[in-house]
Write a structure and sequence with these properties.
With 326 residues, the chain is α/β, with parallel strands linked by helices. Helix content is 40%, strand content 17%. Helix 3 (117-124) crosses helix 4 (142-151) and helix 8 (221-233) packs across helix 9 (238-245). It is globular and about 50 Å long. The active site is at residues 141, 266, 295. This is Alpha/beta fold hydrolase. Keywords: Hydrolase. Residues 67-298 form the AB hydrolase-1 domain.
Length: 326
């Protein structure tokens, strides 16, 4: 790599941080507006808690196609990228459903993990969604891992025609190791703060694996998975959880058209954690790499080579509709 290439790489690396942080800051100061939505609620049976109540927001539209959007670790239905996806769906004339992962609505129902696909399957099976003939799945970060994992499972709703994942971790062990590196401290603290809030709400209402005071002292994702996620969901530890849950070895089993969008300079899910998994991708799995962008944050106009207007979500929705035959 010559000096010019090195300089360009450094600039793009800095832009990776910018495109990760700036959308969050803008959304905090001026939250994105979306069309009217109604509450969406469903329940899932659970061996430990008996029943877990879940929530989301449903945007109706005169369409037979529904876009289901799943947020990332520490996010919720109000996250900037989730709202942008809902707006892209509206622009394309689609209905959309923004799903909260367990406890993300701060109701204290439960916590979640990277392969908790049963909640997604249960949502799709609800009577309220029976009107839709086609379903498209779009997940971000950890939510991207969840929708890809669902696409490998035999219980996937037959109406699901296409799946897209933006900046998803694929090998959970490698991903946890990366975000736990010292240079990613700021991002790690941000994510841990959010999931600790969720955990605190659960601890106030239900039995939990670790007292809240001890949980608040956890400083790495791996320790969180070892001491919170694994015991809550019956894994023997973090390694067992990663081995059983990672979608990476299951990607060859995907039968529905699927897209992974990854950023070359993602500061939270580094490219080198994804490239070994994605290098051998074959249809129906497609991969698009973006030079300028961060973690679930990109320039206003991104061209993935798909029809339709620029902008990541508009491009992804166009791809989903194209693969779904609409």
């Amino acid at each position: 790599m010559n000096g010019t290439d090195v300089g360009k790489s450094r600039v793009f690396a800095l832009l990776g941080h910018w495109f990760t942080v700036a959308p969050v800051a803008r959304h905090t100061l001026a939250p994105r507006r979306v069309s009217a939505s109604v509450p969406f609620r469903w329940t899932v049976p659970d061996a430990k808690y008996g029943e877990v109540r879940l929530s989301g927001r449903l945007h109706h539209a005169p369409s037979e196609t529904l876009l289901v959007v799943v947020h990332g670790l520490g996010g919720d239905v109000r996250s900037h990228y989730v709202l942008t996806a809902a707006s892209a769906a509206e622009a394309a004339g689609l209905a959309s459903l923004r799903l909260n992962l367990r406890g993300s609505d701060r109701t204290g129902e439960d916590i979640y993990h990277a392969a908790i696909t049963q909640d997604l399957h249960a949502a799709l099976a609800s009577a309220e969604l029976a009107r839709y003939a086609r379903v498209l799945l779009l997940g971000y970060s950890l939510g991207g891992h969840i929708v890809l994992r669902a696409a490998t499972e035999k219980g996937l709703d037959a109406r699901v025609r296409a799946v897209a994942a933006v900046c998803p971790p694929l090998d959970l062990s490698v991903g946890a190791r990366a975000i736990d590196e010292p240079g990613r401290l700021v991002y790690r603290r941000h994510v841990l703060a959010a999931i600790k809030e969720i955990y605190a709400e659960v601890a106030a209402r239900k039995p939990v694996p670790l007292p809240i005071a001890e949980a608040r002292r956890i400083a790495t994702i791996r320790d969180w998975d070892e001491h919170i996620v694994a015991p809550r969901f019956g894994f023997r530890g973090a390694d067992h959880y990663y081995g059983e849950s990672s979608v990476a070895p299951r990607l060859t089993g995907i039968e529905v058209p699927s897209l992974v969008v990854a950023a070359e300079h993602d500061p939270m899910v580094p490219a080198d954690t994804l490239r070994p998994v994605l290098s051998g991708a074959r249809p129906p799995l497609e991969v698009r790499w973006i030079d300028r962008g961060g973690h679930v944050g990109f320039p206003a106009r991104v061209d993935l080579g798909f029809p339709g207007p620029g902008g990541l979500e508009d491009q992804v929705v166009a791809w989903l509709l194209g693969r779904a035959g609409g």
